[in-house]
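Exercise: predict the structure of this protein bound to zinc ion.
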Amino acid sequence: MPEIDVADAKQRIADEVRRLHPRLIEMSHTIHQNPEILFEEHKAAELLTNELDEQGFTVERGVAGLDTAFVATYGSGKPVVAFLAEYDALPKIGHACGHNLIATWGVGAGIAFRRALPDFEGTIKVIGTPGEEGGGGKVIMANAHIFDGLDAAIMMHPRDHTYLDRGSLARTVFNIEFFGKSAHASSAPERGISALDAMLHVFFSINAFRQHMPPNTRIHGVINHGGEAANVVPDYTDARFLVRAKEQEDLELLRQRFRNIVEAAALATGCSMKIHEGISYESRVCNSALVETFGENVTALGLGYDEPPAGGGVGSSDIGNVSRIVPTIHPYLQICDPGVGGHTPEFEQAAGSARADDLTATGAQLLAWTAADVMFRPELRERLRDTFREQLGYEPRSNA
Ligand SMILES: [Zn+2]
Ligand SMILES: [Zn+2]
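Solution:
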């Protein structure tokens, strides 16, 4: 096998991306116009896996027990670089998080890489990770060891700014229920036990706690069931809460405090209760050496980037869990004017706009170039591992 020159590899990738551009726009539009929510992304998964199949990838569908998850593989042996694709939409507002672009960039990068360099030494994977918006697809896949042994996991998210790195909050989710006793609210209130009072206690106690919560933490929730009629003492209420923190140990503190608040509310009102904790997202630790490499590619393409603000403006994502297993990046590419926030109708429009269409090629190229750096520069792979160890204090997970 002839030695592959990185600059030459990047030129070939750029040429392939240019050829693929019309198809990338079609893919992005098809997903954008057919929004499917978490774990129901059947059309998107079919489109993407068929595309990868036709391009010579070996495709495994339905991995980790998730119908719409997939792993597409080309090549064999080490090194192994993966592009991650998300393709779930939000209920009611469609692709307002722009995951149609994440899918297009990831799949486009994989295909461009393979077409540009059909006989490289190593493995390229495109990993389809469904249910990011609350389903924790990557957490389930991480538990099934799908990301083990990767030299790098690469993905990118659309946004109103280009950022090389932006932290995220660790996050857990609670569903809570209170069970009381119904009674006529006027003629026999003394016979009732109000499940609504218990729920209100929870909100009051959280609001009292809020003043004393550590910085960079959040608790927010909604009541799903608050009662049926004003003249009946509510015998059942349920709510869903998200609990978030920048630091893992703060999340532990909030988690325990939240449980205490719910138990106290039940005790105070005479209700019984149930707490169900769902899948937790860990906070993101992007590999700084890989971030730097990605940044060099952004600059080489003549693009600028912004420094993210010091505080606020962050959510949570299941890529956090992946970032704690193998060297990972999750940068952002600007697709719209600053100020257009994610999860809004305006961002949904931006994700299908002509500006985003233009960027389908740029995004795929950035990801594929970064993969080329990892694939063809052994000293960089060494640096990614050293950096991972420094940042997290343990080795990346291998598949040995
Ligand atoms: Zn989102
Ligand atoms: Zn998103």
